[in-house]
Amino acid sequence: MNRCAQGIVALALALGPLVSYGDSSYKDTTQMTGGQLVDALKNIPFMGKQFKTMTAPQTTTTLVHGNQKAVVTDQSTEIYDLDKQEVIHIDTVKKQYSVDTFDDMRKAMAKAPDMMKQAQAQAPPTPQTQAPPSTLQFSFSVSVTDTGVQQVMSGVNAKQQIVKLTTVVTDTSKPGTSSTFTTTSEIWTTPDEPEEMKDAKDFDVRFEKALLSGVDLTPYLKMLAGAPHPATTQVFANQPGAAGAYDQMGKEMEKIKGTQILVKTSMSGTGTGGAQPQGSQGGSGGNQPADTGSGGSMMAQGITALGGLFGKKKAQPASTAPAGSPATQPPPGETVLMETTTQLSGFSHDPIGASAFEIPAGYKQVPSELQQMLQNH
Questions:
Q1: How far apart are CA 1 and CA 23, in angstroms?
Q2: pLDDT grade for 14, boundaries at 50, 70 and 90
Q3: Residue 193's CB: how many other CB atoms inside 10 A?
Q4: Are 41 and 1 in contact (CB under 8 A)?
């Protein structure tokens, strides 16, 4: 082997394997597609513009080009650049942008635990009030059914599975009164993850590795572990018997294999009896609000308000989701309160133009929230 060949081999060994990342893109669209709550909002006079925004399709487009990734919505774009080690936040509504470097993000993670302690120390004490015992009782059941239905969706073969979580709420102080809420998810999965999604996940792994290289995350992870759960998980989840039901749902969900291409979720309900919420007054003034300091009373009011929609049956708008099995329809006598659909589509390896990862001309740079936070601490 001559010296030139030896030099090429040595250089190749020093550089390691050269990896070429192609272009990939796909879309994720979520839309509120129907239900009695949607109909109720539609009839509120001042909700016109807000209603259109709430029910319009919300599409997120993910673009990957080598060491760059962009996440695009109709109002913003996030650009992740591994070569420049920065994240660009573009506000397409205000026509402005901000830039966070990896160093800024590392500094914020390092300061986060101390900032959390400082915020907790400065927070005013929460008044402790004793809520009256709740008279509401909850029971839960969960199931996952493979319907055997298959269909080509977004260019891939998908099969249908149905997940149901049923919650029955009864009020022991009002015999004969109960409300049943059924959350049904129609999930279409494909056994093989689309290559475009694999490319995006591969980018995320490389991004995390580049960002966290040499960073001690122990204090940050401890802080996250002690953070309170989102309020949305505490509506039914904190009720007696819910823990076992949600654990069971987790086990059932493990049966669903593959990539979820479409998820159509509906919440339906039915009610019996005409009792008023806990804490209300009887007679002509029986619809007075209950004590808002009581968690049980507040939930009772919410259940009663939703129950008022059960009797207002109306033909539901046609869904953009495929026609599935009868298992996706609400049981006889139940009313659909809300329905949402999330679907992946537009999988493509077509070349992506450089402009997708550039700041639009004329946009003004402003300090990012992260930079302002670092300056104030």
A1: 38
A2: very low
A3: 12
A4: no
Other residues' Cβ atoms within 10 Å of the Cβ of residue 178: 19
What lies within 8 Å, CB to CB, of 42 at 6+ separation is: 51
Residue found by looking up tokens 């309900």 in the block: 269
- Residue 343 has φ and ψ, to the nearest 5°, of -140, 140
Rounded CA separation 37/268 (Å): 11
In angstroms, the Cα distances linking 154 to 9, 70, 151, 262, 367 are 45, 21, 10, 9, 40
* φ/ψ bin of 78: left (φ > 0), alpha (ψ from -120 to 50), beta (otherwise): beta
pTM listed for this prediction: 0.71
Asked if residues 312 and 291 have their Cβ atoms less than 8 Å apart, the reply is no
Structure tokens at 138: 């909850």
Of the ranges 79-83, 139-143, 270-274, 314-318, which one carries the lowest mean pLDDT score?
A: 314-318
Q: What is the largest CA-CA distance in the chain?
A: 103
- Asked if 154 and 345 count as a contact pair (C-beta separation under 8 A), the reply is yes
Alpha-carbon distance 360 to 273, whole Å?
59
The HSE-up count of residue 268 (CA atoms within 13 Å, CB side) is 18
Query: Token pair of 314, please?
Result: 């109306």
Rounded to 5 degrees, φ, ψ at 264 are -115, 115
CB neighbours (10 Å) of residue 96? 14
Tokens of 226: 């002690």
Helix (H) or strand (E) holding 137: strand 136-153
Instruction: State what percent of residues in the chain have pLDDT above 90.
Output: 36
34: pLDDT strictly greater than 60: yes
Query: What are 352-368's pLDDT values in tens digits?
Result: 999 999 999 999 999 99
**Residue 169: CA count within 13 A, CB half-sphere:** 26
11 falls in which pLDDT band (50, 70, 90)? very low
* 357, amino acid identity: F
Do residues 265 and 185 touch, judged by C-beta distance below 8 A?
yes
pLDDT tens digit string along 231-269? 444 455 556 556 666 677 677 777 788 899 999 999 888
